[in-house]
């Protein structure tokens, strides 16, 4: 007897599973509010050099003061990083006479003045992370994803060793602690450290929530579970836009997005440990208790009669014995056998491409043509129909084809916007929205697909490894924006190439549509 057969006898998918999904969707909503928070706490409003002795120009308007103090860029806007060493009063007579003498132009000497009409306070305005310090601003997202990368390794192993629920609770508690410390940061160094630690903690939430839900549902509802969990990520995307619109001071915004973790901690009390994991670890009594509770909630009163205590215990013991649970597994186990090795190498490449292209688009709201709040909301909205379509596609054409083509189409949309001329803003916006939809569809598929590729005894190790590789992509994505100083289109060319190549690699993975979740390594081999 397989676990799926036993789960079917408890009701398969009933009130017990619905309760688990509802509770686990709470932390799922909270995740993008942290993962994409960089768009708001590190946003850089328009700015120019601070002008010394401005009180001496009492007879001039602000526009005239800027005209004689700040050189113009080629597009006619005032420079953000340069100023005249001396006021150029002759420009008041003819503003078109921009001086060709570069010696009178210097870098900002007295700080910057920021436009606070949209953003009251960000880390850019608080610590002047602009111009030559622009890299430090982008690095805050990289620090966070480095933390997520480290957390993927730690929590992937620990959740297979000590259980899904225990590690999920630990990661939520740590997320609250480090999130609040981030909000209280008094220096850039403190923020960088606490955001890195927040990334470590939130990685556990990202890694555990979906597999814990998947291990309690039957084959017929696995796709539904994966898509539903992903839809709540999009809901979090939209909520982030609304919360950031209402809370425009970065310290309080961090508090606002961290607070919901407390509700998740309380609600986790009603979520049981994974019965699959308990059986794989030989903990029969706990698995027995949770299965009986599942049957009672699903109103399968005949379950206790069909499987009295002694018979159920025998069935569970037989499952555990068949799967040889006593062995100790670590990440190296993912590469010891031929099929698992191929799965791990290919899925690593796919996860890197998915994350790299997704965050490359998601962290570039200013290039969308709308204000950052509306862009964030639209990007969240477009993800939902993309996921609805994926719900049909992954069940019709399969996981492998869906994964490969969504990634390839993401890359083609990014590439299309390289060649579409800048004046065609409407067309560029439509292509960008389509690319974002394909990108989210690829992310939705990869979570579902990967959780089906690995056996129960290695599932969290597999998710930890792939999440580690994905977060490397997420950490590198914001830094690639800095390549525009080499060539303006180089970031887009990089995102496009990685997405298309990783999509091609997805064709090498095995199909998992309508197949039982593998319990042991021999099931995969």
TrEMBL record:
Residues 87-514 form the Major facilitator superfamily (MFS) profile domain. CDD domains: MFS_SLC22A7_OAT2. It comes from the Eukaryota. The keyword ATP-binding does not apply. GO terms for cellular component: apical plasma membrane; basolateral plasma membrane. It is a multi-pass membrane protein. GO terms for biological process: monoatomic ion transport. PROSITE patterns: MFS (PS50850). Keywords: Cell membrane, Ion transport, Membrane, Transmembrane, Transmembrane helix, Transport. It is found in: Apical cell membrane; Basolateral cell membrane. Its main location: membrane. InterPro entries: MFS_dom, MFS_sugar_transport-like, MFS_trans_sf. The chain crosses the membrane at residues 12-29, 139-158, 170-191, 197-217, 224-246, 252-271, 343-361, 373-393. Pfam families: Sugar_tr (PF00083). It catalyses: 2'-deoxyguanosine(in) = 2'-deoxyguanosine(out); GMP(in) = GMP(out); GTP(in) = GTP(out); urate(out) = urate(in). One of its GO terms (molecular function) is organic anion transmembrane transporter activity. Belongs to the major facilitator (TC 2.A.1) superfamily. Organic cation transporter (TC 2.A.1.19) family. This is Solute carrier family 22 member 7. It comes from Tachuris rubrigastra.
